[in-house]
User: Fold these one by one.
Assistant:
Number 1:
Amino acid sequence: MSFQTSALVLAWVAIVLLALGLAGLLRQVQLLSRGRVGGADGPAATTAHTPRDLVGFRLPRQGPLAGLVDPVAHRTVLAFVSPGCPSCTQTLERLAATPDVAAGSVAVVAVSTGSCTPAETALAGTGRCVPRGRGLLEQLRVPATPYLVAVDADGTLVAAVLPDEDTDVPGWVRHSRGSLSVTEEPHRE
């Protein structure tokens, strides 16, 4: 076999391998864009949740999720955060300054993926924190941190938002009093 023939065969083999790799990559992108991720818990568990999927979900009455709802307050805001996340700290500080939270009609429960020290500092005594709550984030399929979920006294998720620096957190807390809603576009100040 000549050098040119060997190079041509090797080039075709490389092209076929690259095509197979690209096909596999495109398949993964297609699955992710449809909101499906791998899992062995059945179809319901493989669908990634969006805020719209979470609204209306009722937390179980037993287990770790049941302990998130404050039994005294009319509503509870669950703030899913991560230590070392500046936007998480800002969101918790804005929650702590919200009049409904300060008055005690809305309880704040921060669910941290790690330590609670940054969350407790940001909340300044206006809420409590659940440390190492990554399992809770995964159970609710929280897409990112910070993430806010309003829960009524019965444990039903009534509103959800992925806040950014322009989100009017006090306005969102006031808005979440009513019926089931989802904030796709954040409230602007």
Number 2:
Amino acid sequence: MSSFFDKLKHWGRPWAAGTEPVEIHRAILEDVESQVVAVGGGRRVFPFETVEVRLLAASPEERTRLEAVAQEGWDLPREVRERLKARGVRVPEGLAMPVQVTEERSAAFGDRHYALAFRKAVEKEGERPGKSAARPVLHLAVFKGQGVRDAYDLDADRIYLGRLEEVLDAAGRVKRRNDVAFVEEGELNQTVSREHARIAWDPESHAFWLRDEGSASGTLLFRSGRSIEVSRHDRRGVKLEDGDEVYLGRAAVKVGIGTRPE
């Protein structure tokens, strides 16, 4: 019975199940607006301070396209504020809408190509942080091989690791920028592929995940005296923990997860 009503809803809003960015964008704005609540006296409010947006990509190429659209073409917090304020809705000034693109389908997507998670970011006194707690800083320190920098403090949705800061395509255009980059020269550095691995923040598990991107020398994670292979065939990857050592070929970085020092 529920599938019938889902189909009926999509007949009225066909873009909700669309795959094009313009359709997904429109459906996201409408779903956010549907969370508005009436509080009496003719007043309406949007009760959430964070809306986590996940986009589903069918391939690495589509993932790259969606990431570009979300980063360069969309400004969801501003668009939501303007849309709701035009309808007389009170919106939190600090509204945040982080966007993550994934190739891993989960139940949260249903038959759509996007999923939304609504969070009340401000915790009440005495509450323990949960999945909506602030994202920790990821500290990566190079201890084997030579990086462009010795250490990195990062808190982005996606962190790219590889050889060279900029990777060019056959036409000489930049196709990828590595956030953690090893230099070209040196025996250990040559075992790091130019597009070696990526680390992605997952708000649902509140964790960073390491994924190999088809590197030539492979990716290994050392933890508490044992090694964990990061398979190029595992789209989700391996969850990182504080103290892990990540080997990109024979070069390596040490992982630290925590708050940014004052």
